[in-house]
Amino acid sequence: MTSTFHSIETAKRSLFTQTTALSTTGHNVANANTEGYSRQRVNMQASIPMEPFAFLHSTTPGQLGTGVEFDSITRVREKFLDDQYRNENTNFGSWSIQRDTLEKLEAIVNEPSDTGFRTVMDNFYKSWSDLSKNPEDVTARRIVKETTLALTDAMNQISRQLDNLNRDLNNNIDVKANEIQGYLGNIANLNSAIVKVESLGDNANDLRDQRDLMADKLSKIINISVLDSPQGYEIQMGGETLVAGAEVGVAVDAAFLNDAFTAGTLTNGEVHGMIKSRDSLVTDYQKQMDTLADTLANGEMSITIPAGSVLPDNTVLEGVTYTGTARTLTSDLKVTVKGLNGLHQLGYSLSGGTAPGVPFFTAAGGGTTITAGNISLNAEIQADPNKIATSLRTTTDTSGTESLVKGNNTLAILIANLKDTPMKTADGLRNATIGAQFSAIVGQLGVQSQEAARQTANTEFLTQQVETRRQSVSGVSLDEEMANMIKFQHAYSASARFMTTYDELLDKLINSTGTVGR
Known about the structure:
The longest helix is centred in the N-terminal third of the chain and has 61 residues, at 138-198. The strands form eight sheets. This protein has a four-stranded antiparallel sheet, with helices on one face. The two termini are 31 Å apart. It has helices at residues 6-30, 79-109, 117-133, 138-198, 205-221, 254-263, 270-298, 339-344, 379-383, 410-416, 434-474, 478-511, and strands spanning 40-46, 68-75, 225-229, 232-237, 240-244, 247-248, 300-305, 315-317, 320-322, 333-338, 348-349, 361-363, 375-377, 389-391, 394-396, 402-404, 423-424, 431-432. Helices cover 55% and strands 14% of the residues. By secondary structure, it is an alpha+beta fold. The radius of gyration is 42 Å and the shape is rod-shaped.
C-alpha cells in the first residue's frame, strides 16, 4: 500500500536530481576553456519501486515507481585515446627539439649567404692570388694577413657558437629534470588525494583531470607508460617505475636522464631530443669543423713543385732529404705535403732570408692539435706580414752567397691554387678540397634539417589529430551543454509543477473532506 505522501517524495527526488544535473552542466560550461578538463555527466536511474520482488505482494496491480535518482557523477574520458595521445606527444617532443637544434645549427653555419664562411674562405684564396701578382707589395701582404684573421675568426666563432649551443642543451636538460621531478611529485600527491576522496564512494573527477594533465605534459618531456592501479597512477619509463601511488620512486636529475639515455630506457621526448642533439648533432658538427680546420693546416695533399724551384736546406719530402745541389729541382716534383703549414714551410719570406717559412697556422694557447676553436694565424706573421712566404727561388753569387729572389711568386701561386686541391682529412674519411668538404657539411646539415622538419610536422599532425578525437569525446560543447541546460530546466519546472499539483490535491483531501455535519 503506497503512502499518501508518496508522490511528494517522487517530486522531491526529481527536483534534487535535476538540480544536480543543472549544477553539473554549469560546471561544464564554466570549464569549457580549462586545459585538461573532461566534461562530466550525471548518471540518472529510476529509483527502487515501491514493491520489489518478494514473497509478499499486495493485491494492487502494477509496480508503482518512486521517481529518479543519480548514482554517480562521472567524467567522459577514453583511456585508449589518452595512451595514444601520450605516445604521439612523446615523439613530437623529441623531433621538435631536434628540429630546433638543427635550425640553430643552420643559423650558425649561415650558408648559403654573402657573409658566411664560404665567402670568407673565397676571400682568403683571392688574397693569395692577388699577392702572387706582386709578392713584394706590402698592401697585398697585409690583405693576406687580414683575410687569414677573418678566416680563423670565422672558424673560432662557429666553434664558440657550437660550444654555447652544447652548453644550452646541457642547461635545458637540468631545467627539464627539475620540471619532471615537479610533475612526478604532483602526480604522487594527486594519487593520494584521489584515493582518499574515492574511498568515501565519490568520484574525484576534477582531481583525475589534473592528474591526467600532468601525465600529458610529462609525456612530452620523456617517454612514459601510465598504469592505473587501486593506489593511483603508476608512471614508468622504459620499465623503470618513477611514481607508484603516493611515492616518487627516483630522484630525477641530469645524471639520471643521461644514464637512462645510455641504457636505452629514455627513447623519446624532449629530453631525448636534447641529449641526441647534444651528443649526435652538435658534437658531430664540432668534430667536422675541427677536422676541417686541421685539414686546412695539416691535411695531406699532393702538389707539383715546378722545376727550377729551390727547396730549403735539409727539407724532407716523402723520406727524401734535399740538401746541397739537390735542393734545386731539375724537373717538376710531385710530392705530398702536410697542408698549408707544410707548403708554407717549403718557401721563403721577405724577412727570413733563405731560412724556411714558419708554420702558417698555429693552435692558440700553445696546443699541439689545431681545431676550429683554436686555429689562428702564426703570431710571427701577425706581427710581421713580411714573414709570409711567397718565393721558391734563391740565387747564389760568385762568392757563393745565397740570397732570396724576392719577386718570385711560385709558392704564392701554389697556395692560391689550394682552393682546387684535394686534401685528405686526418681520419681519412674525405679527400676533397676544403670548399668541397665544407659543402659536404652544409649539405648534410640541410638534409638532416629537412628530415627533422618533416618528422616534426608529421608527429605534430598525428598528435593534434588524436587530441581532436579526444576533445570530441571529453571536450565541452557549449551547444550541447545549452541544450542539456534547457532539458534539465524543463524537467525541474515540470517536477516543481507536479509537486504543486499534488500539494493542492493533499490540501483538498486534508482540509476539504470529512466536513459533513459540521
